[in-house]
Amino acid sequence: MLTIRYYQIPTASRQLIHEPPPLFPHDTSSSNYKPRVNNHEYWALDHNHADSCRGFITNWLAAKPLDLFQVQWTPSSTPSLRFLRSGAGRREMLMFIAGACLKSHHHHKIAYGGAAVAYTCVTESYPLQLPLPPATQDNPHTSNRALIFAAFKAVELSLVFSQTEVFDSVVLACDSEYLVEGITDHVPTWVKNEWMMSGEDRPVEDNDMWHLLLEKIREAERWGILVQFWQIPRELNEAYVFAQYAVQSRLASTSAYP
Asked: Looking at the predicted structure, is the pLDDT value of residue 118 above 90?
């Protein structure tokens, strides 16, 4: 079983070495101004520039998530513990995401997927654990589909937090090259090709879920929140074990009704 580490606080010395990047360009027209928490001013982000910054990059290649982000209280009327780092006029929030998929031995080996989002320390709240929406013939449950769903729920959750908490960007950390490369390198091309594979007469796999994720990211950008993705080793992904739990809970419920 994965050891739960995300309640640990990194050293202050490491925190001082790595500061967030400067502010990203915003659309500052009056029609896009959105005042929010504690008179903190927000403008909609430029989508094209946000797309170019979709991958989270640190100049310390060996950096672990909790080397850069600290467990801190959010500045709000109802403070909550989050994984945060601040500097250069910015405040960034970290969330761990994971997806999993297992087959049921009671229902013709049907696969069931689950997702998890770890957004705070375990002493504050356990990670969000969710089953995937019902599978269809065209869209069966897979671990990749579960992970995209986890990313969608994480962005959705960040929008909820943004109504009472102040932050400029959310970093989604996962151990999947499929998700990180997909959202940073391939999605813009897929959109131009109307969700068809380049040079092939077939749709992008899980294009419905990719589309939902992109729409939720665009919604966050309209509220001035940059969404970035960071690929980390699986052993550092605090959400991984909880995605497994989400699936196991679903399998337990199905095995009760043979």
From this structure: yes
